[in-house]
Specification:
Length: about 110
Amino acid sequence: MGNLTSRRTVFWLGGFVAMSLGSCVQNRDKLAYDNFTQIRTQVHSRDDVIVILGEPDHRLDDRFMYERPDKHLHVFVEFDEKGRVTRTQWIEGLGETWHDTDDPKPRNAPGG
């Protein structure tokens, strides 16, 4: 009987670990260009950006920074004093993609 109980425990613990790792991977996958382009200036808040892109790698008073050095990717989201998005930047070195809300025309959008 003890052997069956320990097998169940291992099974449940294994499932819990798998779900935890899956949520970590899912959070990392949120930093995608398609998600980034959903963010609107003067519309979205800090909380909205976290829902759309996941937790930032760095937080400053008025800016979130996301970095993926392995992909040469840097993403910046700036906020006003009310916490609304004022500017977004997607800078991808390998694909030479640059998207900046202060620049009227995105250059070399991924997949486009």
